Amino acid sequence: MCVCVCLVCRDSSNESGQGDSVSLSLSVSELEDTGEGKSKKKRGRPGRPPAASKKARKSPVDKGGRRPNGMAQHNGQGGDPSTLFEVVKLGKSAMQSVVDDWIESYKQDRDMALLDLINFFIQCSGCKGTVRIEMFRNMQNAEIIRKMTEEFDEDSGDYPLTIAGPQWKKFRYNFCEFICVLIRQCQYSIIYDEYMMDTVISLLTGLSDSQVRAFRHTSTLAAMKLMTALVNVALNLSINQDNTQRQYEAERNKVAGKRATDKLELLLEKRKELQENQDEIENMMNSIFKGIFVHRYRDAIAEIRAICIEEIGVWMKLYSDAFLNDSYLKYVGWTLHDRQGEVRLKCLKALQTLYTNRGLFPKLELFTNRFKDRIVSMTLDKEYDVAVEAIRLVTLILHGSEDALSNEDCENVYHLVYSAHRPVAVAAGEFLHRKLFSRHDPQAEEALAKRRGRNSPNGNLIRMLVLFFLESELHEHAAYLVDSLWDSSQELLKDWDCMIELLLEEPVQGEEALGDRHESALIELMVCTIRQAAEAHPPVGRGTGKRVLTAKEKKTQIDDKNKLTEHFIIALPMLLSKYQADAEKVANLLQIPQFFDLEVYSSGRMEKHLDALLKQIRLVVEKHTETEVLEACSKTYSILCSEEYTIMNRVDIARSQLIDELTDRFSHSVEDLLQEGDEADDDDIYSVLSSLKKLTAFHNAHDLTKWDLFKNCYRLLKMGIEQGSMPEQIAVQALQCSHYSILWVNFVPDDLVALRRVVKSFLAVCQQCLSNVNTPVKEQAFMLLCDLLMIFSHQLTTGSREALQPLVFNPDGTLQSELLSFVLDHVFIDQDDENQSMEGDEEDEANKIEALHKRRNLLAAFSKLIIYDIVDMPAAADIFKHYMKYYNDYGDIIKETLSKTRQTDKIQCAKTLILSLQQLFNELVQDQGPNLDRTSSHVSGIKELARRFALTFGLDQIKTREAVATLHKDGIDFAFKFPNPKGAEYPPTNLAFLEVLCEFSSKLLRQDKKTVHSYLEKFMTEYMMERREDVWLPLIAYRNSLLTGGDEDRMSVTTGSTTSRASTVRSKRGRPPLHKKLVPEESGDGSWVMRNDSLQTPGGLQTPQLTSTVLRENPRQAAEHIPDQDSSEPGSEPDFIHKRGLMEDDAEPIFEDVMMSSRGQLEDMNEEFEDTMVIDLPPSRNRRERAELRPDFFDSTAIIEDDSGFGMQMF
Question: How many whole angstroms separate alpha carbon 178 and alpha carbon 183?
Fold first, then answer.
């Protein structure tokens, strides 16, 4: 029978006992007595529910009608949802209403209602099967799940939780909400009836142990959300218990005359009922935790593990008194080592919610001590999202307790402000701001807040920032440091008043002055903050490009630009005046005007400050000859001379006066130098060089054509060539200035002849300079020659510009040879030769990198001439032959050149490749003589280079057919070109080259192999065919490579030698499908080999299709197959699969350190962590022993009997 106990509880807030009442009912089912005494109630055979006194509301399921077997159906209207799954999927009804309708149906017929709920979970898993009422009543859960597994459609592999799209994303949300609302609405009665919850938990436990991923995933998500809802119920019960206890104590402490006995009894009864309810909730949570969580948190699927970790974080946050202890934190700690970034990310986010509450820090102290090192190391995680969250977690730990992190821990995070990945750098910037720039003394802050400038609160912080920047020893990355701190420390970084005062004002008594290095660092940081504020986007190399600013960001950018303009229009001339003699500081300060709002000069009537700035720039130009400073001055003039601003005329006049003065000085100096000739002293040379460097810097950004600088520069170059005594710096600057003069000339049709004459004369000078004794002069001349040949090449006339034909220059053979010789002499040199040519420079790493960068530029300039057909392609042979030897230095450039030349002309490119191999072979013969040691490293090197060249032809042999055939023809011609002087019975001199040619045999089509073999036989005599001595082995090997893959070759695309990788793949594939077209064979008449330059593809050929031969593996075999850990991708399912596809219950969790730097070992945690598996809510008075859930409601595998844990040893 069923006994219903109804209790009326008065509002705990009303001490007088009057007010609203809450009805709590607890339905207790008695066990039926059998012949053997009290037996366990069997699931599926519940007692009859009491008859309803009135007709219940129809649920959405009832509205659609119901078949006799319990299956829901559509009501015939075509479109109304008729199952819980459809209602939740559509999401058109409020979830509260959906749950209320289900509760009404449960009160009418709980078996049918539970059947709807069971089918809901089955259908949410993507299963097409349906549980019928007879199955529900007569079959155990394991049998039902097995039946549903058989009906599962596994063809697609998709199920609602994994299908992409907004509809299914909404479904997931509705699914979780339905479970939470269901428990919330049932928390006062139904969940305690020992039927509904037992059935649901039993079903979810069985599904979570299924082999089917969809069942496991869906049931785990449902169980975890169910657990979260139960945690909320338990929390409410705990609060009600505390309130009831306080009311009881207050009533009992009253004097005897005023004490209400009835109220005390009522409160005791209420407390007892709440205690019983809490015990029931504990049992439910223990079943879910032990039966589902402890298995699925280490599931093979990362998404399932992530769900478990995410929800345990919610439990610890919601009910910290019960869950925030080491027994549960250890699962999060262990999972920090998960192979999948998604799971590690959930761990970190779960911990962040805990560390945000500083009141929880005492409970997290042990966890912090044990896992702090792992969390700090995760700031270097290979997944950037994980690294960002790890840094944020470390920041929260720092915020809660500064003593928790050591100096070494902090330094590991500091350097990440220079990371190229912006989110990582910004997170590190927040950590740095919290550690170094947060003011912790409120009184001192309030006292300093009234001060301005260098004495303001930011004064010391800016000094600290400068010191951090200098100690980091990454001075060239100031822009990265500023960008990292921009989001967290804008107030500090935009305090330009303070920075200006620190630079301009003298320190007060007792204050330490900034040193020279500190001033340089502060200026560099200040310029970076100005750039960041004005441009409002990250520096180059950090971010994917300029993004569109929002209206708010645009307004902030405009305000910042106006603010910095107002500050530095006045301060910049003073800063330039103070640091006028320091080239580094001046070069940085001169970058500031490009970020000005130049309209302020005219609108704010600040022309006097403009004049002061122009005066200081003029003084800087007169005082400095450093290229960096002069280019900064030139760029500043260029910005100030923009035609859109009204100040343009004023600046143009100042610029013209400066150029006039420099030009006059240069002209007089040149005249003096030319007149004195060899007798010129150092002052004359310095005067010419100084003015020429300044003019060259300005000519780069300004059109100085009207000053005709080319004339004097050309005179200097001619004199240097004729006398051979021109200082190298003057020659370099004269070449560069002349080059700018040519580039600034307008292509007027009437002046084309004159311009051609100028260009021709300058090209001749540059060609003569290639033989100069000074390396810088030769390098400058080479670069300018390559640039001008590119500009004035045949491509100049494309696009309806035929009128420019007179300006086209094609380099003759002599010039091409000189350019190639220069590349061979100055690019392909050994490191030792380079160090010797540095002429006393320090052989440090920076110099080596700079020299390598210069050589790469030289090679790239010449390679462009080859790619654009300005220099004949055979010249590339001397470049290609160095591919292997200089692969680390120039491999990318040579490979790109090879790729581009093949796109231009495949056949000519193939001829060039074989020519490069022939050159290497000839060099080897010259060094070692005709009798080569075929086992030597030099011969192996040539063969390896040939193999690399063969790989560049790719897999599509139809496209490269003619090119490969031509290559073989040229190779055979070369091998038999020179007969042996000793006689016909000896092998030809170059016969060993055929061994190199073997590397390309795999790239020949089958019928082409026959043709090449026929061509080879024309050079062979009967005597050669019979020889088997070692000297004839190259010929034998080459013949065999052409004869392999005869009739049994079915896939001509992958035809190759018997030792090739392609033939191995082919042999595994077996016969191709019959419907595929095979390449037709051709007669081996060898007619195509008679052509000298190019080849015609014989016949129209279609590219054979390649099909996948991967077979679907039997699921049973797949489950039994245990791959090696090294052969599987980290984090993939095979890493977690044991014999039955999931981890065994007694297995340790499989985790792997995924750090970029090194793998770490977890320490043993047995000392600190006790493996407690039973959820024990905070104790309350008069607690009775918890009753265990009746095991007949659960499968035998659902509950873990071992209270000590689940067989998993701790690390």
Answer: 9
Helices vs. strands in the chain: H and E counts, helices first: 51, 4
Residue 485: is its pLDDT beyond 80? yes
Say if CB 1002 and CB 1060 are below 8 A apart. yes
Which amino acid type is present at position 650? R
Residues in the chain: 1211
CB 224 within 8 A of CB 293: yes
Note whether 950 and 1003 are within 8 A (CB): yes
- The residue assigned the tokens 């309030």 is 446
Short-list 469, 477, 401, 391, CA closest to 430: 391
pLDDT for 1101-1110, tens place per residue? 333 333 332 3
Sign of the four-CA dihedral 1196, 1198, 1199, 1205: positive
SS3 of residue 771 by DSSP? coil
Do the Cβ atoms of 318 and 235 come closer than 8 Å? yes
From 799, 771, 807, 767, select the one nearest 785 (Cα to Cα): 767
Please tell me what DSSP assigns to residue 1006. Answer: H
The answer to whether the beta carbons of residues 329 and 1170 sit under 8 Å apart is: no
* Cβ atoms of residues 398 and 355 within 8 Å: no
Q: What is the mean pLDDT of residues 92-117?
A: 89
Nearest to 375 by CA among 400, 351, 342: 351
Q: Is the pLDDT of residue 108 over 50?
A: yes
pLDDT at 1024: 78
pLDDT of residue 353: 94
> What DSSP state is assigned to residue 358?
G
Asked whether the predicted pLDDT for residue 765 surpasses 90, the reply is yes
Say if strands 21-29 and 33-34 run parallel, antiparallel, or are unpaired.
unpaired
What are the tens digits of pLDDT across the range 620-668?
Answer: 999 999 999 999 999 999 999 988 888 889 999 999 999 999 999 999 9
CA angle (118, 119, 125) in 5-degree steps: 100
Contact 234, 322 (CB under 8 A): yes
Handedness of CA 452, 453, 455, 460 (dihedral sign): positive
Rg of the chain (C-alpha set): 42
| 1156 Cβ contact partners less than 8 Å away, ≥ 6 residues apart | 380, 381, 382
Closest CA to 1115 of 32, 155, 22: 155
DSSP H helical segments within 1075-1176, as ranges? 1115-1120, 1133-1136
Q: 317 and 354 in contact (C-beta within 8 Å)?
A: yes
Q: 186 near 196, Cβ under 8 Å? A: yes
Higher pLDDT, 112 or 46: 112
**Residue pLDDT, tens place only, 182-224:** 999 998 888 888 889 999 999 999 999 988 889 999 999 999 9
At residue 1182's C-alpha, the angle toward residues 1179 and 1186, to 5°, is 65
Average pLDDT (255-284) is 87
- pLDDT attached to residue 453: 55
Which band of pLDDT confidence, cut at 50, 70 and 90, is reported for residue 509? low
**CA atoms of 507 and 501, how far apart (whole Å):** 9
Dist. CA 175–CA 95, nearest whole Å: 10
**Residue 293 has what DSSP assignment?**
I
User: 381 φ, ψ to 5°?
Assistant: -60, 145
pLDDT higher than threshold 90 for residue 126: no
Whether 1001 contacts 948, CB under 8 Å:
no
As a whole number, the mean pLDDT across the chain is 78
Write out the two tokens for 1184.
């009775």
Contacts of 718 (CB under 8 A, 6+ apart): 765
Query: pLDDT per residue over 697-737, tens digit each?
Result: 999 999 999 999 999 999 999 988 888 778 889 999 999 99
Cβ neighbours of residue 204 under 8 Å, at least 6 residues apart?
121, 219, 222, 223, 226, 288, 292
Region of residue 265 (phi > 0: left; psi between -120 and 50: alpha; otherwise: beta): alpha
| CA gap 576, 587 in Å, rounded | 10
